[in-house]
Specification:
single chain; elongated; mainly alpha; two-stranded antiparallel sheet
Length: 116
Amino acid sequence: MIKNGKKTDKFVIFIRFMDIITWTLIFIAMLFFEKARPQTETIFDIRYSKGIRNTWNIPMAEISLWVFVVAAVLSIVGLLINLGFLGDKKHHMSYGLLLGLILSLSASSAFILLLL
């Protein structure tokens, strides 16, 4: 990428790549979490006597938890690399990685407490 006649550092491209990968993993983990949750009963389920699953799907829940953990590890690695380059004036903190780390860690801890 060229910005104002200067090439973007490989560092910036790598941090953006880590940010995109982290948020993609968080989105995938949320999809697995949605599949793992117990199904809610609707009026049509009651009317037509459709059997619904009212327990957690534990294998899907474990996959969701591990994907959250991998997203947190990638966020930590990206933030540590980012902290190494913060002394330069042209680099700044990646807030996407920071928010991804906070979301991943809080979702992982809440998920562990929920399944206990």
